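Lecture 7 notes: from sequence to structure.
We start with the chain below.
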Amino acid sequence: MNNRRRLLAAAVPSALVLWVAAPLRVRAHQEHDGVPQKLALDNGKKWPTDKPLRDGMDKIRALLAPRAAAIRSLKLLPDDCKELGVAVQQQATAIAARSKLPHDADLMLHVLVNDLLDGAQVMQGKGKVAPIDGAFKVLHTTNKYGTYFDDPGWTPPG
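Predicted structure tokens for the same chain:
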């Protein structure tokens, strides 16, 4: 019985730490059970967009475009990576809060936002990999946006 108590005493704080440290995306979007795991087209068609989504992605593109070459060449400095990660996180959070898409498009939007938030967290040094890896993920996700979402004025950041 003593061993069980010790195991339980050790397991409860560990479980609490895991719950508190759960990724932002899980807590922020828990109302969307069944969110797809990766971006996909809607039966071969791009998903619709709305003004908040297009505006938010334009802002993320404007943040990334002047730094795209530095990200690809591994020359983005850690402090710049952190600053950029904070800005991307703010924009991705705003997109999730303001965009009002039809249900299935909204589910796909959450895949995009989750990927942006994951990358932004890593860029801020909140991951097990280098911040530049988060910058690559954000750049890659942003470059893929126009492939899956119908945004006629979209140009990738690089």
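Points to note: Confidence is low (pLDDT under 50) at residues 1-32. Helices lie at 2-20, 24-28, 51-64, 68-72, 78-98, 103-123, 131-148.
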